[in-house]
Design brief:
CATH superfamily: Umud Fragment, subunit A
CATH topology: Umud Fragment, subunit A
Helix content: 10-25%
Order of helices and strands: HEEHEHHEEEEEEHEEE
CATH architecture: Ribbon
Structural class: alpha+beta
Oligomer: single chain
Shape: elongated
Number of helices: 5
Radius of gyration: 21 Å
Distance between the termini: 66 Å
Number of strands: 12
């Protein structure tokens, strides 16, 4: 009898240890950092498909406005293209398909199941006037120097985007992909609320020959 009780106790202890380990791993991934794989070409050539990155999640804890030029990840808007009428009413990206009950919120936001994220570069900060004209980006009427772009890259209205001349609302940021011709970004879906930011791209971990911190 005592042997059976001891076996049950050992099993329960192992289960407890496994549960604690899972909880720590989930919390670490949500609050500290996590690896990811590039699956889009919108940040080419800075980031390329199948490269492995390490994401710094601390940005979601501090709630601070990121710096211009930072490469960040955020929850993908539910509407990737505002109409002209919608853009006149508000230039903030729409999030209309968010989960409502507690379990769905946990699996969506914490476990990130069935959740899409985008990687883009921070261009416009709260209160700034962002204008795209003549193939360039202007911040408060001054041309933005973007040395990270390939030579000859033109920034236009992204084939009909209506968010190309605006004041960035408070608590939001304006983001663009480095591959301007192949990026769906704030030109189309509007400015991203700070509460939707997930992480800052910190280190490229693969391929090994490119290992290191990603410069602006």
């Amino acid at each position: 009898m005592e042997e059976e009780v001891s076996k049950v106790r050992n099993i329960l202890e192992w289960i407890f240890c496994i549960v604690i380990a899972i909880i720590i791993a989930v919390l670490f991934r949500y609050y500290i950092g996590t690896p990811t794989v590039v699956r889009m070409s919108s940040m080419y050539p800075t980031l390329q498909n199948n490269q492995r990155l390490w994401l710094n999640r601390w940005i979601r804890n501090t709630k601070q406005v990121p710096n211009r030029g930072d490469i960040i990840t955020f929850e993908a808007p539910s509407n990737i293209e505002l109409t002209e009428t919608e853009a006149k009413e508000s230039v903030v990206a729409k999030y209309e398909n968010e989960p409502t009950n507690l379990l769905k919120k946990f699996t969506y936001y914490v476990l990130e199941m069935n959740k899409d994220s985008y990687i883009k570069r921070v261009i416009g900060l709260p209160g700034e006037h962002v204008e795209i004209k003549d193939g360039k980006v202007y911040i408060n009427d001054e041309q933005l120097e973007e040395q990270y772009l390939q030579k000859g890259v033109v920034t236009d209205n992204a084939h009909g985007g209506y968010c190309t001349d605006l004041i960035v609302p408070e608590n939001t940021i304006f983001v663009l992909g480095d591959n301007r011709a192949g990026s769906t970004d704030s030109r189309k879906f509007g400015c991203i609320p700070l509460e939707k930011l997930e992480s800052k791209v910190w280190i490229r971990i693969w391929p090994l020959k490119l290992f290191g911190k990603i410069d602006k």
